[in-house]
Design goal:
Layout lengths: L6 H39 E7 L5 E7 L8 E6 L10 H9 L2 E6 L23 H15 L7 E6 L1 H12 L6 E5 L12 H13 L27 H13 L10 H14 L12 E6 L7 H10 L3 E6 L11 H14 L6
Parallel strand pairs: 3-4, 3-5, 5-6, 6-7, 7-8
Antiparallel strand pairs: 1-2, 2-4
Helix pairs in contact: 3-4, 5-7
């Protein structure tokens, strides 16, 4: 006859096998609950999204919320030319630790925002009004409806330039502004500034708006040795690591169109009377060894601004926020001192 199992044996066997199955179900349930909780926390702490401008450009932005019980306010973090939000993850984390929510965006033409030309490596902008309008849309649509107050703008290099023009047009937005190596004027060494401006004008008249300036080209990995940006080798590699993970973040050199628009905006920023109409409290933190933008221009505009404090960090290169621990420590001391009135 065939195999026959007594009913009692079957029942006993089923009960024995059911024990590990219960543990497996319990484990899976706990695992899914943890995953769901982690996903919710991630959405609360970091959000990337897009907004669309009136001229149909997609601008990527990010929001990072502080988990501190007491919020000190919000920071709008504005990066420089060629940069993207991922590059400043360390700074964003440090702001969160200080109790600030952080709002940031990729400027049009860089990061994962819409690029202006078919060759996405080319740095181009028609005029700086586009940057200012994008920032205004970001503040009105994304930041103001949910931001904890007071509101601080922390801006680097080109972002500092745009921030100054922005608060001139919209003085009610920010309570305080911190400018790190702001691009008040650019250094054109080894060529004199007047010659570079002349070259830009000639190129524009010749219809070369979209052409790279002499010496520029598509993105290539820059070597640490001899770089003008930072003396910290690890933080120097942050940008390259991010681009390696997502090549779409890469941006090459500037075009004559970008250069012409930049000179035009510099002239607006530095024209007589412009600075005197900006009353927002401003801290300028300057890099003593900056070879990208003019420190003298920073000192000059600070002397003209009604409520400006100037600090120069000896030995620092252009990207203070990506510099050594020693340099960054000086910066954070200045930042904390400047924003201490926001402590609750």
């Amino acid at each position: 006859m065939g195999n026959f199992n007594h009913p009692r044996s079957m029942i006993k066997k089923i009960r024995i096998n059911a024990v590990p199955i219960k543990f497996i179900i319990l484990y899976l349930t706990l695992f899914l609950m943890i995953q769901k909780h982690s996903a919710v926390q991630e959405r609360k702490s970091s959000v990337y999204n897009f907004m669309t401008t009136s001229d149909n450009q997609r601008i990527r932005y990010g929001i990072w919320y502080s988990h501190n019980e007491t919020k000190r306010g919000s920071v709008i973090l504005l990066n420089g030319r060629k940069e993207f939000m991922e590059k400043h993850a360390e700074t964003i984390g440090e702001l969160n630790q200080r109790g600030f929510d952080v709002y940031s965006l990729d400027w049009r033409g860089q990061g994962l925002s819409s690029r202006m030309l078919a060759n996405r490596h080319k740095g181009f902008i028609k005029n700086y009004d586009s940057y200012i309008n994008d920032l205004n849309l970001f503040v009105r649509k994304i930041v103001q409806p949910k931001a904890a107050i007071p509101l601080v703008i922390l801006a680097h290099s080109m972002g500092g330039h745009i921030a100054l023009r922005f608060i001139h047009e919209y003085p009610e937005i920010a309570d305080k502004v911190v400018l790190v190596s702001p691009m008040i004027d650019i250094l054109t060494w080894p060529l004199p500034g007047w010659l570079v401006r002349l070259m830009a004008r000639v190129a524009i008249k010749a219809g070369l708006n979209h052409a790279y300036i002499i010496g520029s080209g598509d993105y290539t990995v820059e070597k640490f040795k001899g770089n003008r940006l930072t003396s910290d080798p690890e933080r120097f590699r942050d940008e390259n690591k991010a681009i390696l993970e997502n090549p779409d973040l890469a941006l090459g050199g500037v075009t004559y169109g970008w250069l012409s628009a930049t000179f035009e905006s510099i002239d607006i920023l530095t024209k007589p009377g412009f600075a005197k109409k900006t009353n927002t409290p401003i801290l300028i933190v300057s890099a003593g060894c900056d070879r990208v933008v003019s420190v003298n221009a920073q000192k000059t505009i600070c002397s003209l601004l009604p409520n400006c404090t100037f600090t120069e960090i000896t030995g620092a290169r252009h990207e203070i926020l990506k510099e050594t621990d020693a340099v960054r420590s000086i910066f954070w001391n200045e930042f904390d001192r400047f924003t201490h009135t926001f402590k609750i």
